[in-house]
Structures
1.
Amino acid sequence: MTRFTDRVNVGDIKETKEGYLVATARVARTGVQLYLAKELGDIALSAGFSPDDVVRVYRHPDQVFADATLNSITRVPVTLDHPPESVTAESWSRYSVGEVGDTYSKDSEWIIVNPMVKDAGAIQAARTTHKEISMGYEAGIVRARDGIDADFEMTDIRMNHLALVRQGRAGHQARIGDSWGAAPFQDFQPGDKPITAEGGRMSDQLKTVVLGDRAVQVAVADVAAIEQFKADSAKALKDAQDAHAAAIAAKDEQIGKLKADLQTAQDAAKIDVDALVAARSELVSKVKAIDAKIDPAGKSDAELRKAAVAAKLGDAMVKDASDAEITGMFKAIAKDAKPGNPVADAIARGVQPAGDAATAMADAWRGSVEDINAWRTQKEA
């Protein structure tokens, strides 16, 4: 026996005075439905079908409306979504949120029942998120009888539960995602008997092909073109995905290189300020030792060395000389120069006025001398 689920819209609903929800639901039908061969198990594969082939399964009225089938539909539990196992006396309390009534009716192709939902949470779900119902049942699968335009038939249909399921479908994954049994993706020939053509069978000029999560009948002559189109589309999609992945990889590689270059630049930009200050101070001290009149303000290291060499050896020595030559000459004249010690000099000489202070001091000295001389001149007179 194979587990199956069918999904349909719930019919009219009403609420009892106790707050229970009662629906009128069409839950099983006759006719042909389409499945993938892999959903039917070994019988389809042993019949020569590939796993993704579409197969037609016929539910004959003599099976749908058999007494055993009809008797199995009464009093089955109502569940919220399909449970992962068959509902039995041992699992009923875990899964049941209501039950199907003990009466049923039939029309030409449906079994009609009145499920009642008693759990408050399930009632809320039935009004919002779980607006469809899906019958969970077991059935046998056999090769179709002669004269039936299908690959297989269902036999011995036995209902297990009726599930409230989420509204709407989301393609193939949602179709088989109820986790209880195989679900058809199309009612290909609804009604109490197959729609036939040409003497009671479908025309040999038509063939079923799968497009997305649907199966359609097309002319045999068009099947090859359709399958080629599907293959080309799949290849184009894969090529686009591969190209996108390659572009992302190239961009990531470029980003990695830029990060490495940035780190290298940051490392190179790290400057030892203390070392630079010390080196500059040493250079200025040597230049001053060679010629104290040289003002280092605004001059580069190369300019200071050039000024010191010119002061010591003359301008002709530095004319047209390269920086490297001037550096060599500077080292030669600086090796014997004794840099002064500003602190020691200040202690030895005392604080010496400079700039405006020096000028003011000189003026004061001259003035005092002139005053003395003027007094002497007056005394002698």
2.
Amino acid sequence: MNDLELTPPVFAILSSLIEERVGLCYTLQDQDLLVSKLSPRVLDLGFGSFLDYYHFLRYDPEGEREFAALVNALVVNETFFFREFTPLSVLVRDFVAPLVKSGRRPRIWCAACSTGEEPLTLAMVLAQHGLLDQVELIASDISSNALTRARSGEFSRRSLRQVPAPHLVARWLSVRERSVAIDAELLAAVRWQQLNLLDDSAIADLGPLDWILCRNVLIYFRDETAARVVNRMSRQLRPGGVLLVGVSESLMRFSTELRCEEHSGVFTYRKGPE
């Protein structure tokens, strides 16, 4: 039973540490949520208070390793195959296919991919258009647990709770009684990588990109943090490159060099020419 109390001052320093390192923003309204995520680790490690746990994370040499483990409990792994499917279809048809036809090998990054259903859905669409082997597809997440699940190629049946493209399911997924397995060809087409979106150097190391998906992620960041991430990403886009965010997200409130455009009802953010 959890009888630890998270006082407002300790909540303030703990939530600030989390935001400083990974960008996730917890307000006072989220205090109970944070307690539910932190308590198991605090108790399992034998700390008598959240303050002791904070000092361990902040100052102990082993704190970095524990923080990496804590991230797995903090992140939201809410994703599924074919989520917001139309934008993926439009962007492959209107952006990727023309680039390939022009002789380019597009480089695409799915940022904060969670357990991998998004990049694997994208891989299905690319394969449908005969483009999978002509594109470099990178998928990253901060959670090592999420990436382990993605690399396994095994998913729960909940990952198929929406099926707008049954022909793709029939071609690329093995649907079992309690699980779903992805075709090995698609799994191997994705380069999986652990990456913190606040790590500017790690993003820079990805090299020039033609297309970035960062969907349903920025909503967990404070505006200034989200703007920093967007600006870092925009620097990685080649001229004419595109950033795609979630359908309920908008970058219009940020100062960014990217230009909002509409394509077949899908809003994208494009980098202008040099």
3.
Amino acid sequence: MGNKDLEKRFLNAVDEANAYPKILPIDIKLKFYAFYKQATENTGLYRPSDGVEIRNAFKLNALFQVGKFTEDEAKERYIALVAKYLK
């Protein structure tokens, strides 16, 4: 499977997640957030910029948990989250 196919599947998953009409539990939302950021901003320098410190702490913790994954692995995990929680 090539990078083009992975990128297409990832972008389709992102579109599906953005269009999902139901509210997900916060722990699931954090997984989506972290894998998306790892897949799209894998610089190692990303910091949450929300004005609420406790929310930033949860986001940062989620980012630490997925930091071991490569960009492609994070995309695959994001796609798997969509398949698991949104279908």
4.
Amino acid sequence: MTQSLETSDALASPQVIKLALSAVQRYHAQCFWFRSPDAEVETVGDVLLVIQRLRQHGDLNAWKTAREIESCL
């Protein structure tokens, strides 16, 4: 999961944004307690943060979700 700085500021596709927002809501208490569940996810960098947090603090299902999101990047 290596992205350049140039792509991390690029807007993510609507499909990826939808998956990432769904993951934030589903795993909010476990992985995203530090952010509002209504916070925007717009850029590839935002999505990479979601993936990172799912992997750092999530269970097996969160890991699978992270892999699914990453495969859409």
